[in-house]
Write a structure and sequence with these properties.
alpha+beta
Length: about 80
């Protein structure tokens, strides 16, 4: 699974979220990821960041957020 940040374009029909690999993972993406892990269980996950690369602590925080969710999903599937 790959997770990445997104850019928002505003249109008359509503916002369009475009995967840009250049910002933190957004709340909506984390919510979808949580729902996916709940359905299929833990899976290898990559935080993809190709542009506007931040300091290490920001990247590490994103990875830790994914790790916490994977552990949560693993505990639910083991029960």
């Amino acid at each position: 699974i790959h997770l990445a940040g997104h850019t928002i374009e505003h249109h008359a029909s509503g916002p369009l979220l475009i995967d840009d690999h250049g910002s933190t993972v957004g709340d909506k993406a984390w919510t979808l990821y949580d729902r996916l892990l709940e359905r299929i269980g833990p899976r290898p996950t990559l935080i993809e960041w190709d542009t506007n690369i931040p300091q290490w602590d920001v990247l590490r925080a994103e990875a830790k957020a994914a790790d916490r969710r994977i552990l949560w999903a693993d505990s639910r599937h083991a029960a």
